[in-house]
Records
---
Amino acid sequence: MTFPFLRRRLPRRTLLLAALALPLAACGRSAQTWQLDNITGVMPRLKFHLTNDLGQPVTAQNYKGQIVLLYFGYTHCPDVCPTTMQLMADVVQQLGAQAKDVRILFVSVDPKRDSLPILKAYTQAFSPNAVGLTGTMAQIDALTRRYRVAFSYGKPDAQGNYVVDHSAGVYIFGRDGRIRLLASDSNPPSAWVHDLKQLIADEF
Ligand code: NI
């Protein structure tokens, strides 16, 4: 499709600049722009030993070749976790067929209450691409320390209920397990979709 009326109106200099910019845009990786926070190389690559919501031991190797959205939370969370999980579920759905390359890993920072069946029901309620992960406190601590994720337990009420304060960032890893992006529910879905499509298109 051409727009002759547009072309007529553009000053000659603009057309020349546009023509010059084309070869640069075709230069691949260096021309990529990101709408989420680019933290490539700022944090270590994905590494963990945990248990999935089927009770199977898993490591980062199990997700090699996939784009991983790593999030830390707990199923009793009243606000940030459901909001962020719903956002990620919507984003993954918008990816259509490309969603097969994306996994949402929900790591529980409340393993005492988040049993395997609860974790599985919770993550599946949001997205078929979501997996609940849990582990021993030592395993969870090792992973949260690795990505400087903070969490702390509130005082239990009379019924034994308590809140867990936790960092709300989502760490996004490329197919090779390298850290690439940091996101949160303050980023619009369009930014997530744009950047994830770019990561999916990257060669393994
Ligand atoms: Ni939460």
---
Amino acid sequence: MSNSKDQHFETKVIHAGVEPDPLTGAVMTPIYATSTYAQSAPGEHKGYEYSRTDNPTRAVLQKQLAELEGGDHALCFASGLASTDAVLNLFQTGDHVIAGDDLYGGTYRLFEKVATYRGLKFDFINLADEDLFRRTLKPETKLVWFETPTNPMLNVLDIRKISGIAREHGALCVVDNTFMSPFFQSPLELGADIVMHSMTKYINGHSDVVMGCLVIKDRELKPPRRTWMDPSFKAPRTLYERLKFLQNAIGAQAGPFDSFLVLRGIKTLAVRMERHGLNAMKVASFLEKHPKVERVLYPGLESHPGHKLASCQMRGFGGMMTFFLKGDLEQTRRFLSTVKLFTLAESLGGVESLIEHPAIMTHASVPPDLRKQIGILDNLVRVSVGIENADDLMADLDDALATV
Ligand code: P1T
């Protein structure tokens, strides 16, 4: 087989990192449902000691993810938020984090309501404002974290510019690439150090798994100011080694059954993403012309303020959009309770179309003032456009919009 670096994405999602099982020749990666591994003598084993540390099913998935994102290594965790928490564990009391002001509500909650109590300090800012970003950087700033496009306002942030400034400052830059998947966007190529995914979404794609991952461009790190627990402890040297240490030390990694499901889901990532993008463009254009809709936010529309940047930075525009209804909270509730084909539910990125109300559902943990400031209003609706027939989706929205 040719070098996988030369292969196209559609080929890599089927083959990268996946070899027939060395023991049996099974074409599909087996589910290695084992917690432990026999050793022939103490410390002598075949590379696997205990499944918290390493598991062959998870190892194949990690290898494939690293190839798809163009990273050196990947690590899989029990959820997107568990992966985020692993990154936060790199840092110590007093370290400062600059995060985008528009983030998934659960990420905001982890930063503000959990990590803050462990002594990390956060500023949530509009990272599109370069002066503000530079003014917010401090000597203690160790991490810059953002999503692009953002959840739920679909703002597009300049990965190359932000990661360049973070690097100049000596801070790590993490991009949450959940909305795009590696099919549409490659943050590591644009300068990010780590890509984080909630694989619960597009990468698995079938709404039957909760999982997250970190894909890492490896590099040497400075030793931490204080070592964990014991002064004789030698912290791992590189970014990957430190995160791998944390994955094992904390124990929030992905299990083999879920890893198998994600390996299966990934095989159709390219065809799914293509269809998500085509359907979303049709739905966004339909909504933009609809008299009951005030404004549509979809990076593929020329009216979107980030359209030009999105066209350079992304290879497509994805399946996520939000729109403001011409109505109040009551009318928005009625609309959301009337749709039939769209399921009213949190989450996104599955083959089926979902719809939700960010202020009441996914972003309820963002304080009302911040919600208002970033535009999460009572008439804002978020849509994850699935891969059904787009005409059926538009007909469903049209029927429900008649109630507004
Ligand atoms: O749910 P979990 O796998 O832990 O992933 C958290 C997460 C992280 N980043 C982004 C951009 C996300 O959208 C999410 C999860 N989001 C939803 C559940 C949602 O409906 O937006």
---
Amino acid sequence: MINKSDCIFCKIIDKEIPAKIVFENKDVCAFPDINPKAKVHILIVPKEHREGLFSLSERDVELVGKLMVSVAEVAKKFNLESFRVIINSGSGAGQSVFHLHLHLLSPEGFIV
Ligand code: 5GP
Ligand code: ZN
């Protein structure tokens, strides 16, 4: 259980830790992964802290929809036609940051 005040992504969202924010609106923030696994590797996160996919409930339906629409907006912004979206849920599946996030991975495009 990670406390919100110890959460690295909350600190990025609050601009307490530097990151190159490539997309932001009222609900969602996106920035490149510090350790990219593809030519373009962007993390898309809700501004409201949720630990992971496993912690979502009915009240989060709108939040999840907003995340998905943000994927499309980020892909459009960087002219990505082909990409994968991954969510690791739980440490056994490779989740290392316990603030819900989508990995947007693409073999094309670049971040300036
Ligand atoms: P997970 O393993 O939880 O699915 O993904 C967490 C991701 O966050 C990893 O790919 C890792 O490289 C990235 N990450 C961890 N700390 C930071 C950070 O301080 N800044 C950025 N931009 N990415 C981070
Ligand atoms: Zn957080």
---
Amino acid sequence: MQKSKLIGNIEVPGDKSISHRVLIFASFCKGITKIEGLSPAQDCASTANCLSSLGLKINDKESNDAKGKQQSYITVEASGIKQLHAPKANLFVGNSGTTIRLLAGLTAGQPFTCQFDGDESIRQRPMARVLQYLEKMGAHIDYIDKEGLAPFTIRGGNLEGQEFKLKVASAQVQTAILLAGLQAKGKTTVHLPSIARDHTTRLFKHIGIPFQNNDGSISLEALNDPIRPFQYKVPGDISSAAFFMVATACLPGSKLVLTNVGINSGRTLVIDVLKRMGANITLLNTRIMANEPIADIEIIGGDQLVGTEISGNEIASGIDEIPILALAGAFCKGNFVVRDASELRHKESDRLQLITSNLKIAGVDITESEDGFTIVGKKNIPGGSLWQTHLDHRLAMCGLVANLLFDNPLSIEETASTVISYPDFARDLKSLAKN
Ligand code: S3P
């Protein structure tokens, strides 16, 4: 079967990780914050809905720019630090781990009780990794069904700053503790075992929340006065761009430019790995926007990629991209090996298990290990098999990309879950595919 090529330019939607933070940090302002390019992901809508239940006023707006072009943006109206309202019902976070963990940190400092819950996937994801620290700072946590899992309640209030050494390089856990620390008495310090994405401190700096950074350990004290409302334009999401990058690299004759993509060094494993595998990738117009590095990424599909190993501290910078990188690995010359990635078992699904079983049944020579997998690459993958997603958006998007690369079409369990991070992914991918 003749394979398509991907040709053209595309601007992927705003970064999900940054969008959550901009919405949440706007709660520390007194007045109206204006956000352009907020991620359309359902996960970010979950954050916005929970913040609305906590008393923030969040609205979609439109205006004309200087050239008369219509622009849409979001406004967030808040009353300042510690001014949230007790929610009238549960805070339902849907599928979003970032929402539940970051909002746990935010509400831990508020003098009321909140009950958090989410979908079936959220109910299986580890919450104690955040809540144990909030508890040590003085929040009261009650697990409703099972210890360590959602649903749970937080009774917030008088927090004391503490110093914590995290075992996992988790930006979510670090951010949750810092959000609690901004409402705690004394100093809060978080040490990470290795580098993770630093969107939180970049945004703190951009909007004027004081903190100290000592070799990656972040300290801060209570924020006593509200910060000034700000304006922010969210960069494109490299985790969404990754799907197009892998597809283009694996389809000879393809050429794509992904414009305005965030290239925070805590997120760029996908670029580093594809380059290591021999992909033709160029970062054009690298620049700083709202204290985040961004670029236009040009990628040209060519020769067969070569195998590589991904392991150790670099895993955190591509934690969400390893499933799609596995697809590049399936087509490589040699071996593609992932180690030290057991965190993938605690995402929206057990991604090590699911990517391995999907690829194996499609005809890939892949062996799962406790903390990764090994692939012996091939030029052609038969496909024609069932592709399970377990309602995990990134697995559904991998399936759509695999359909461009495998010899026979897959039967993808569902693609509706793409709404979690990139609602128009299937349409955008199709619009770039040329025969
Ligand atoms: C995120 C951090 C990562 C990532 C998640 C978003 C964030 O999780 O997998 O999709 O926005 O901080 P961990 O920090 O738990 O690894």
